Amino acid sequence: AKQRLYLVLEFIQGDPRPWKRSEFPEVAKVVDGDDEPLRIVLAAAGRDQFYSPVITRGVDEVDPLPLVAAMDPMTTQLPYLVHSLRLRAMLNLGEGNHEAAWEDLLACFKLARLLGMGMSKIHAQRSYMLEERNCAAMEAYIRTANPSLSQAKDYLRALQSLPSLARLSEKVDLFERCAYLDALLVIRTNQEGAIAYLDCEPGLAATGKMVNLFWKDVINWNETLRIGNRYYDRLVKSLEKPDAAQRREEATVLQQKLKSLAEKAIGIRGTDDTAKGGATTGSKSKLLAAIVAANLMSDIDKCLASEARVKQRFAKLEMTLTLAANRKGFGEE
Length: 333
Hints:
- There is one protein chain.
- By secondary structure, the protein is an all-alpha fold.
- α4 (74-94) packs antiparallel against α5 (98-115), α5 (98-115) packs antiparallel against α6 and α8 (168-189) runs antiparallel to α11.
- The longest helix has 30 residues, at 300-329.
- Helices cover 72% and strands 0% of the residues.
């Protein structure tokens, strides 16, 4: 029984592939039981716009929560829905119901793109993750279903009509910039409960406590906000470069600069001259800006890599369908 469980888990978590009820009856039973809710999900996939509010209503008398700790349940719930649809699509594909499989797969792509309309980089990251798995499933569909000329053209047209892929630069320019400004405001107001929630980004809560213990009276808060805004201006400009390699290079240079500045503050506590006032107000303001920005931008390189991977995967999928249509155009369907 344990071996069977491991086999089922490996199958569910592995690359999408066609399967049959007789192969994994336990999984099939779960999928069949989801028919009614998935009908609602399919209807939702037909929408042109997506909106889900970021929840900042707090708990433990912390209200509002810092933006870095704010939640959008759809970033965790929607991937499960897409996974269920994709799993059912591969079941239909394995049992020869190609039309139903295509309907589910197209909905998976739509839902991934809709999630990418959310405000934060988390929305973009989850959207990219779903898109990669969807591309893998679509590649399996093409190999198995062997679409005709007209079908290949229809599939290509449908995929090219999807909402645009999430743009990381848009998320950074608005929501992530606001998260930086908000984190500084949380530190400035010194709300102990809210500062604790800053630890959603490793190191931010410790920074907030350090500032309020040693630096609070010597920080030029307006200057720290302005410096951070300039960092985000620079990052957004880098993310909008047309060349992927250049985007990664410029973002990495900025990350390294911020990390280098932030590391200068690692030993700054109540026991050294800098914390006691040896450093100027200006230098402390710059250090604080760098520490907060470095924390919030720490995963940008991973986001960029995921974005580039998805674009390449989708372009390859378009090429595969184009070749399928052209190849069949020279012979019989």
